Amino acid sequence: MEEVQVRLIATQALGEMFSEKGGAELVKKYPTTWNVWLMRKNDKSAAVRLKLVESAKGLLVNLHDHRETVDGGVPPCHPCIYTNIQVELMRLKLLDPDEKVRAAVCKVYSQLDYETVLHYVSEDQLRSIAGRGMDKKVWNTRRFQ
Predict the structure, then answer these.
(1) I need a surface site. Which of 93, 103, 115, 138 has the fewest CB within 10 A?
(2) What pTM was computed for the model?
(3) Measured between alpha carbons, how far is 1 from 5 in angstroms, rounded to an integer?
(4) Pair 84, 38: CB distance under 8 Å
(5) Each residue of 53-75: b (16+ CB within 10 Å) or e?
(6) Is 64 helix (H, G, I), strand (E, B) or coil?
(7) What is the per-residue pLDDT for 17?
């Protein structure tokens, strides 16, 4: 249990650091730390995977700080962050075995502003998120909270 607590704290702290305005520089300067943080997506504890998804919201929100995009809507100064968060993390976590993690991904996207979604979320990703609406277990548990 103690190890899970340490991973939770580290996942949250690193997520907050990478989400800050200078977060892209941290990714460039400490790529190993970035990759280890991203590997929490495979953590055996659902609580850690959930914390990772929640921490990723700041990264998605801060993508829109740079309005200019290149082909495919990828921001030029954040291609590594964009690819890792949107494609490798959030898309994978929509299929996580734990319903709380899947619901958290949907919640993160529901909290994004229009401009961020318009410029940085693909139609395919939106369709995948909408597909989670058929996840009866998530909706049944959420209805009573």
Answers:
(1) 115
(2) 0.78
(3) 7
(4) yes
(5) bbbbbbbbbbbbeeeeeeeeebb
(6) coil
(7) 92
pLDDT at 39 over 90: yes
Q: Does residue 125 sit in helix, strand or coil?
A: helix
- The rounded distance, in Å, linking the Cα atoms of 7 and 103 is 21
pLDDT digits (tens, 9 = 90+) for 102-139: 999 999 988 988 888 887 788 888 888 888 877 666 54
What six digits make up the tokens of 52?
A: 């990772």
Phi, psi of 57 (to 5 degrees): -55, -45
What are 70-81's pLDDT values in tens digits?
444 444 445 567
Q: How far apart are CA 80 and CA 78, in angstroms?
A: 6
Closest CA to 89 of 40, 20, 36: 40
How many Cβ atoms sit within 10 Å of the Cβ of residue 134?
8
Residue matched to tokens 């962050």: 81
Question: Residue 10 in contact with residue 48, Cβ under 8 Å?
Answer: no
Alpha helices in 20-143 (DSSP H): 23-29, 31-38, 46-63, 79-82, 91-93, 99-110, 114-120, 123-131, 136-143
